[in-house]
DNA sequence: GCGACAG
DNA sequence: ATCTTGTCGC
């Protein structure tokens, strides 16, 4: 089983202090509230790394609730920062924003690959991107970063709360998006709440583990990867 | 001091 | 995230 844990090289203390301060400031700008109405367009954001020092960020825009692809863009560039648990956004957000500028349509909600507020300082990349663009956003992650939870029931659609072990605060929901598959971690990012985040994730499912926005962003990343190499 | 660690 | 061999099931 999972007897091997990922090894994370020690990060520069000064850098971590600086990034932590930035997250604590951004955290004050996060607003969790009901989304006024359903979105007409929903975007999926995802990044991959064709080489160790380059990043490929993809954004797809789909209609909602139809989930038809209406636009797909990407940006390929260099990556400066290393991956440090808890600071993923500083490594991926810059390039994602460059891809965002290429969009000709304006999505109403952003579904980001990674956590929303289900983060040590409530500033996962989903919240980070939402705050920077001041857009409603949510995070959908495949692995837990922080928090405690009970394994959700086996039935598709089952969910269980992801709680902060210290404060007991609800920071996300663990969702069984597909039977016999490891659950997803859904959390709000900005300008929407947990109920809305989970509802959107559920309504974007089409028989796969991942909701369509992130699934298609992931799919197109594979295609664009051929264009950049 | 001992675990945990998105992508 | 990325790499990688093999296995299972429709």
UniProtKB/TrEMBL annotation:
DNA damage recorded as keyword: yes
Cofactor names: Mg(2+)
InterPro entries on file: Endonuclease-V
EC number: 3.1.21.7
Record keyword Magnesium present: yes
Residue(s) at site: Interaction with target DNA: 83
Binding site for Mg(2+): 46, 113
Annotated GO biological process: DNA repair
Cellular component, GO annotation: cytoplasm
Keywords assigned: Cytoplasm, DNA damage, DNA repair, Endonuclease, Hydrolase, Magnesium, Metal-binding, Nuclease
Record-linked Gene3D superfamilies: archaeoglobus fulgidus dsm 4304 superfamily (3.30.2170.10)
Pfam families noted in UniProt: Endonuclease_5 (PF04493)
Subcellular location: Cytoplasm
Cited function: DNA repair enzyme involved in the repair of deaminated bases. Selectively cleaves double-stranded DNA at the second phosphodiester bond 3' to a deoxyinosine leaving behind the intact lesion on the nicked DNA.
Family stated for the protein in its record: Belongs to the endonuclease V family.
The protein, known as: Endonuclease V
């Amino acid at each position: 089983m999972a007897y091997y844990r990922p090894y994370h090289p020690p990060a520069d203390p000064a850098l971590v202090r600086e990034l932590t301060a930035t997250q604590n400031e951004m955290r004050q700008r996060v607003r969790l509230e009901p989304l006024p109405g359903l979105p007409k367009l929903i975007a999926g954001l995802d990044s991959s790394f064709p080489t160790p020092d380059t990043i490929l960020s993809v954004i797809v825009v789909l209609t909602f609730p139809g989930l038809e692809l209406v636009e797909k863009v990407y940006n390929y560039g260099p990556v400066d920062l290393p991956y440090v648990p808890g600071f993923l956004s500083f490594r991926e957000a810059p390039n994602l924003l460059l891809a965002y500028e290429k969009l000709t349509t304006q999505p109403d909600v952003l579904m980001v690959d990674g956590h929303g507020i289900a983060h040590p300082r409530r500033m996962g990349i989903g919240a980070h991107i939402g705050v920077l663009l001041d857009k409603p956003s949510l995070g959908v992650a495949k692995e837990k970063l922080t928090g405690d939870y009970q394994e959700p029931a086996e039935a598709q659609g089952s969910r269980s709360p992801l709680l902060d072990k210290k404060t007991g605060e609800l920071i996300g929901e663990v969702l069984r998006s597909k039977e016999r598959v490891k659950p997803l971690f859904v959390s709000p990012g900005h300008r929407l709440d947990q109920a809305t985040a989970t509802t959107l994730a559920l309504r974007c499912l089409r028989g796969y583990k991942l909701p369509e926005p992130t699934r298609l962003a992931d799919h197109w990343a594979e295609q664009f990867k051929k264009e950049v190499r």
